[in-house]
Amino acid sequence: MTLPAAVLSQLETQTIELPSWAFGNSGTRFKVFATPGTPRTPEEKIADAATVNEFTALAPTVALHIPWDTVDDYAALGRFAQDLGVGLGTINSNTFQDNDYKFGSLTHTDAGIRRKAIDHHLACIDIMDQTGSRDLKIWLADGTNYPGQGDIRGRQDRLADSLQQIYARLGDDQRLVLEYKFFEPAFYHTDVPDWGTSYAQVAALGDKAMVCLDTGHHAPGTNIEFIVAQLLRLGKLGSFDFNSRFYADDDLIVGAADPFQLFRILYEVIRGGGYGPDSPVAFMLDQCHNVEDKIPGQIRSVLNVQEMTARALLVDAVALKAAQDAGDVLGANGILMDAFYTDVRPGLAEWRESRGLPADPMAAYAASGHLQRIAAERVGGTQAGWGA
Amino acid sequence: MTLPAAVLSQLETQTIELPSWAFGNSGTRFKVFATPGTPRTPEEKIADAATVNEFTALAPTVALHIPWDTVDDYAALGRFAQDLGVGLGTINSNTFQDNDYKFGSLTHTDAGIRRKAIDHHLACIDIMDQTGSRDLKIWLADGTNYPGQGDIRGRQDRLADSLQQIYARLGDDQRLVLEYKFFEPAFYHTDVPDWGTSYAQVAALGDKAMVCLDTGHHAPGTNIEFIVAQLLRLGKLGSFDFNSRFYADDDLIVGAADPFQLFRILYEVIRGGGYGPDSPVAFMLDQCHNVEDKIPGQIRSVLNVQEMTARALLVDAVALKAAQDAGDVLGANGILMDAFYTDVRPGLAEWRESRGLPADPMAAYAASGHLQRIAAERVGGTQAGWGA
Amino acid sequence: MTLPAAVLSQLETQTIELPSWAFGNSGTRFKVFATPGTPRTPEEKIADAATVNEFTALAPTVALHIPWDTVDDYAALGRFAQDLGVGLGTINSNTFQDNDYKFGSLTHTDAGIRRKAIDHHLACIDIMDQTGSRDLKIWLADGTNYPGQGDIRGRQDRLADSLQQIYARLGDDQRLVLEYKFFEPAFYHTDVPDWGTSYAQVAALGDKAMVCLDTGHHAPGTNIEFIVAQLLRLGKLGSFDFNSRFYADDDLIVGAADPFQLFRILYEVIRGGGYGPDSPVAFMLDQCHNVEDKIPGQIRSVLNVQEMTARALLVDAVALKAAQDAGDVLGANGILMDAFYTDVRPGLAEWRESRGLPADPMAAYAASGHLQRIAAERVGGTQAGWGA
Amino acid sequence: MTLPAAVLSQLETQTIELPSWAFGNSGTRFKVFATPGTPRTPEEKIADAATVNEFTALAPTVALHIPWDTVDDYAALGRFAQDLGVGLGTINSNTFQDNDYKFGSLTHTDAGIRRKAIDHHLACIDIMDQTGSRDLKIWLADGTNYPGQGDIRGRQDRLADSLQQIYARLGDDQRLVLEYKFFEPAFYHTDVPDWGTSYAQVAALGDKAMVCLDTGHHAPGTNIEFIVAQLLRLGKLGSFDFNSRFYADDDLIVGAADPFQLFRILYEVIRGGGYGPDSPVAFMLDQCHNVEDKIPGQIRSVLNVQEMTARALLVDAVALKAAQDAGDVLGANGILMDAFYTDVRPGLAEWRESRGLPADPMAAYAASGHLQRIAAERVGGTQAGWGA
Known about the structure:
Four copies of one chain form a homotetramer.
Chain A: H1 5-12, E1 18-19, H2 42-56, E2 61-65, H3 74-83, E3 87-92, H4 111-131, E4 135-138, E5 143-144, H5 152-168, E6 175-179, E7 189-190, H6 195-205, E8 209-214, H7 224-233, E9 237-242, H8 259-271, E10 282-285, H9 294-313, H10 317-325, H11 329-341, H12 345-354, H13 361-368, H14 370-377
Parallel strand pairs in A: 1-2, 2-3, 3-4, 4-6, 6-8, 8-9, 9-10
Antiparallel strand pairs in A: 5-7
Keywords (chains A, B, C, D): Cytoplasm, Isomerase, Manganese, Metal-binding, Rhamnose metabolism
Protein name (chains A, B, C, D): L-rhamnose isomerase
GO molecular function (chains A, B, C, D): L-rhamnose isomerase activity; manganese ion binding
């Protein structure tokens, strides 16, 4: 089946940012399994990301994580990336691995530690100035493990103040995106646990502050596409961290656990005007490839997003609205399901070939011998990981 | 143990509003078990509520549900209540039992049905004018059962418009409180599923619109006291619908399922300035007594809230702050637990007696023979229930 | 795409039993919406089920629910069904709507009430003798709402004794299938809450007792296909009650909420030898069409099962095993996903036509005018429902 | 309040085994915070456990984890422990940290790796012979992250075979206890995810195989006390791993998250004959002290179990049964709650003093300066941790 031209033209501009840390080793508190070929440096991570883009033309930028990707010369790193056909994207701060942050960072009761955490974010913005990044993404591990351990209310007030200081430093074309997470690593309360909190905090900051929605950061049963619709309506959906989960924040490949949910999310993004080159909504991956190969894991992920976007673009919006207005429950649901069940893969393969890309990027990558090559080359040194 | 005078003086002003419908029959989709003595009229429900107040001095007002409690003369109903020592409280609207509302009420695509739903709320405000009620509580069953059945985004926009029309009709001393609910009776999406949505909607309305937090309306694992703290911080916590749950919206007796959670909630209410006669936060019950006796079920409920408030008032806030600031996790937690584990029941019994109340309201009610009396008297007619 | 002959031959024998009560009105504790054309009698329910079978050739039997489907002459009812091309199937007992069962049935502490509940099941077996039904399905509402209300352990022992008495009455070709359910209508504890309990109870009874797995009766996040694999391995998977859910026991159309889960379940059924005419595993629907039309709702449901079975049959088992043995995570997952994403609908449409069936049963039913006809004919009388 | 002698005499024999690993550093995948004084050797862990016992007289044994606690001479280790007043208890196997086990251990498709995992367990039994331990506890990380990655059914069959080989090696007085876990570190399927699986597997082995119930290893909303009652009824509850959780397997201090749940669990243990010196049920802790001090964290934990056991022993079983039989829901619940709300702490303090123990072990430990002493002494070396 050839896909409609209107769908293909919308797919043409799709971009999905890759996280540099997805190419490093990751795991659980029980074990991190290392694999041959894992990058040792930010440059090698970027090279891997560029490889994903080479096979898919879907991932033109790489997000950095500070301090995991700290380098002396970010301009040089940007040129390195550019030479490989990709750019540097979102800067992710990290205030969860320094001993000082055991009891909080932007929410800490100790003024000195809170200052340190704020300063780290200002330093991240300095890096953004050098990399030309638009977004500073803030995910906080702040929270408590036991009732009474911290003052929930006071922490929220300090968070607001800290964010205000960070926000004030943003350049005109820079944004702050605040991610929320239901739980982990804190097990009783999390300082930004839900979209409501993230929304209330960024709404207080101003137009350059937005919400980041990580698809794995919700309570069981949460209707995520509703949140997408609501945040778009409120003008505050800044970006997605895509991944999938069966239980908690499993960080599996996006679309792997509940493909229909991914379809519904993407449909609602499109419905709400969040899709396309002019949209403020950035698509990113945030995943862990604990047991599968990392580069093909990322290729699989961007393809999943692309395929599901194609299905969501196929929804007959006019017929759907008519069925909805008529109270035709089965008819309306059927229109949505018809798009979901359409096999867009042959059409996408054909289209990829027409653009000089491999019809089947997974097979092409496997056949390329790239994984074997980097495994042979990248010997010695310390493999990248979370450094927990 | 005699409770500290400072605690007792704060308990003195505590009031918990009773829902008239708690005295009617309720159940599940599988079965509603009727019991002898169940009220047949709004007046009999009010009489039952007055009985709860008589034994506890905790429940001076009764919330009405329209149309379940529709009468010809609300002024007369108010006088009837007053004669029994109670007042009429919150007015609850109902747009979930008319066939027109099968696919929505304030969110409906059909302008006529939406108008009807808005008008119902205006009629409720008319009643409030007669009863002197402050609060109009809106809980919506609006939502869909299947993906695609409705347009999530469009429904939210229509909801905002409907609420605006209702809000405009409020008197100076009247409030609109918007309740949220995770799911049920809609099983795919709910139009007001979480505090974030309720907050965003009422924030758009103005100062007289607040959020109603029903303790049973959250996703599994949700930290409710965090929401309490956040809404108080945002100045938008209008009222509580107290009940408890193990699974979904079980509507069990408040404090029955997780007493420690109730303690944490009440602590955070106090911490955030939400407790006391000057607070804008109203305490209400919203429960179903499916298998237990209703009047003692309500007595048990208000006592649970009172006892847990006493424990929460016992928290040594100064010591707690010191432990929190020192990063003393076990110490801070221990201070909270010390209050929770304190047996306040003897002290409350003593205090009740000093105020001319029964030391043990449950035992006193059982000994009063009241239940047997109303069972004998209330013969014939149609027992009140949800009329589903 | 034409489906492989090996797949079509396996689909040829697929049967899915319909529940008579799916054609009656259903709803939530908040509201039951009635619809024109709803059956008034067991005969009309059977006629509706026969209509589903007429359009799909997938549903040759109807399950009855006693007492909802009580008639004087079951042999006559069987002939009535036969004349319409369908047979009578599983008999479902009901011990949740009599006032005596407020605190339990097969688990009740009162010997007389427990006797009554056992006798009801014996009467159901009498009916089975007349209808020629193989299966007695027992789902119990037994449980408690409050800690302490009942003695969990004693109730389990009485359940075992009651089941033993019922089991003893089974004929040689009859079976008892025991359904489990996580919660509802009981909200603290359920006497058969999980597959382990159902398994332990039926294992103690003997070979004619099996477990019934209702896909909506699990805790959030439960891996249902694991339970399928385990019960097949233990030789105790007797039947499925298919439906779907987003939150609790939503009883939505099977496959509507998480189609990929349905695929995984059906794959594991096939993998474990639970599929086919010689399998002991019976496929049934157990759903509520609260807001959608009932007959097309059932047609949609059996088509969903058929389509998903076709996808599961397409899995390349040899390639899958090779990838699994090689530790090729992405490869193995890809093989499964390839089958899932295959659009089997055109192939099934073609095949249906070749068998004299409508290519698109949903469209054919809509075009038939049947719903309008029964709405016009079925006037007066009392529409069937749960009678709660 | 002085506690009844009957309660005190039952408390006298209470023992709670401590996990050696609770004294090592632990954390999340994001960060492990090290603390001064953390043990470097198995001996230091045992010394810390002995300290907990010294202050509480509740923890006379320590569980070992192999290989984390591997030593050359287990007899010498046993004598070392004995000199400190404690004994060596359960041996825990570990097949989740060797690279070979990336895709499974006792369930692996590769015969050699499976053999290695079996042999590890046989080696653990060799250690048990030397330490005199009764129990081999098996918790498996085996599972998969993606649908299709593994063959669920085949893995279960291999598990059964592996367990059989291990079971055959047990001495007459030794037991195998099989723990189940809902998820983590595997995120799609776990090979022993629920009590039903653990029960089915150990039932197939024989009388010396039992189930281990970790209180944090269940789906949200699971009624754990029901499982306790059921396993006791089936004669298969071997041991508890106590901890608490708000979300997933948070491994918080037992009783910290939901004290009422702990009460209900302990009540059901007592009710089912699982409490006391003659019971086959072993009480153990399995916790992580990520942010709180470890030794006082363990003291707090055993005290929580002791206090809650005292409350559970206070339940008036005769009155409870009478209320249950009478269908007196509020009465029965009230009897349970009365015990729960009783403040047993003063009575326990008094009783501890009468036995030569500190009235308040937490305060006594804090005053002892022990933590400061070991922090000063234990300098250099590598602190114990999970070594992930």
